[in-house]
């Protein structure tokens, strides 16, 4: 209780008449002049970060608004939100190591899901034509300021469309969310000016690799020739990698750092896309895209593979990769 005034130095302050202590703090906050800047402390003690740093508080608020607008956008397009199992016997749908736990009632080992994919596909099979889930997934991998072993993922499935329709949906959703949450489709992230208002660039993975590395993999005949190119460029690969894997390694090495403005990278090699429909005119490539913004992969999507014979062959290839030492193969 008191009067608000400015000090002689111009700082907003309160001339206190009465003060009531609501609760006692035994730990002092970081002193105000230097603030809380240590990255490790900010992540490990997020509550202190929120008290001390207004920008962190703003991120939390914006995150909530973003999720709300995603739901609004999808509700307007007749998608229904669902929840699927977290404890699973077979964690598929992504390349990642699972966490394992034990289910006492059935006396069996189960795993925490690494993606939302497989149960959402069953809902599509069951006749729910537009479904999505925003849920926690768990990946038994490294920890840094951009990777957490548990994180929130959104997956969305729609019947009777393909990856072109999904690119349109994704682009429109990002544009809608930016406009509703920020009031603009042009904004800064750090020092980077991003523009969600203009059409997102679309480029194939092979075109992107050619543009930034100078290597045209359409002219590379086979896996042996691809590995020779990787050796020349000091790009490490595993013995079980094939030509498509090498293309992806070149993409990670030469391309990702250049993808600042929203860019759809399309038509990936079949070897790195075990659940994806092949392109009719290029059976070595698939109808898949990833959206990159500010060098980060924001999403991964594709036309679903619905050829059962092709799918069985892909599963066999996954088994072979696992037997050859690929710990992320399903």
Q: What keyword list fits this structure?
A:
alpha+beta, 34% helix, 16 strands, four-stranded mixed β-sheet, globular, three-stranded mixed β-sheet, 330 residues, 9 helices
Can you give a write-up of this model?
By secondary structure, this protein is an alpha+beta fold. The protein is 34% helix and 23% strand. 22% of the residues are buried. The mean pLDDT is 93.
Brief write-up:
With 330 residues, the protein is α+β, with helices and mostly antiparallel strands. The chain is built from 9 helices and 16 strands.
> Helical percent range?
25-40%
| Main β-sheet, spatial strand arrangement | 11-12-15-16
Mean residue pLDDT: 93
Question: How many beta-strand runs?
Answer: 16
Largest sheet: 4 strands, mixed
Structural category is: alpha+beta
N→C terminal distance: 63 Å
Low-confidence stretches: none
**SSE run:** EEHHHEEEEHEEHEEEHHHEEEEEH
Write the layout of secondary structure elements.
Layout: E1 2-6, E2 12-16, H1 39-44, H2 46-52, H3 54-75, E3 80-81, E4 87-88, E5 100-103, E6 108-112, H4 117-125, E7 130-138, E8 150-158, H5 163-182, E9 186-189, E10 192-195, E11 201-204, H6 205-213, H7 223-232, H8 243-254, E12 263-266, E13 278-279, E14 282-286, E15 288-293, E16 296-302, H9 308-323
Parallel strand pairs: 3-7, 11-12
Antiparallel strand pairs: 1-2, 4-6, 5-6, 7-8, 9-10, 12-15, 13-14, 15-16
Helix pairs in contact: 2-3, 3-5, 6-8, 7-8
């Amino acid at each position: 209780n008191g009067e608000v005034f400015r000090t002689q130095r111009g700082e907003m302050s309160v001339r206190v008449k009465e003060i009531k202590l609501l609760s006692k703090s035994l730990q002092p906050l970081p002193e105000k002049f230097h603030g809380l800047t240590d990255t490790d402390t900010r992540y490990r003690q997020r509550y202190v970060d929120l008290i001390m740093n207004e920008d962190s508080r703003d991120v939390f608020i914006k995150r909530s608004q973003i999720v709300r607008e995603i739901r609004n956008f999808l509700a307007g397009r007749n998608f229904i939100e669902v929840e699927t199992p977290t404890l699973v016997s077979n964690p598929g749908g992504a390349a990642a190591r699972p966490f394992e736990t034990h289910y006492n009632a059935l006396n069996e080992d189960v795993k925490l899901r690494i993606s939302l994919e497989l149960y959402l596909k069953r809902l599509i099979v069951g006749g729910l034509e537009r479904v999505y889930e925003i849920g926690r997934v768990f990946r038994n991998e490294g920890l840094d300021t951009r990777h957490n072993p548990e994180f929130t993922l959104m997956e969305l499935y729609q019947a009777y469309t393909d990856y072109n329709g999904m690119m349109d949906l994704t682009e429109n959703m990002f544009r809608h969310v930016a406009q509703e949450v920020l009031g603009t489709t042009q904004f800064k992230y750090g020092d980077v000016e991003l523009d969600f208002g203009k059409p997102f660039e679309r480029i194939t993975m092979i075109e992107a690799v050619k543009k930034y590395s100078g290597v045209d993999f359409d002219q590379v005949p086979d896996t042996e020739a691809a590995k020779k190119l990787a050796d020349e460029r000091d790009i490490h690969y595993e013995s079980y990698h094939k030509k498509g894997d090498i293309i992806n390694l070149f993409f990670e090495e030469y391309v990702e750092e250049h993808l600042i403005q929203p860019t759809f990278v399309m038509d990936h090699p079949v070897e790195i896309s075990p659940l994806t429909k092949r392109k009719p005119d290029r059976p070595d490539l698939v109808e898949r895209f990833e959206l990159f913004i500010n060098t980060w992969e924001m999403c991964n999507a594709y036309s679903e593979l619905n050829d059962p014979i092709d799918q069985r062959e892909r599963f066999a290839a996954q088994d072979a990769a696992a037997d050859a030492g690929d710990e992320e193969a399903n």
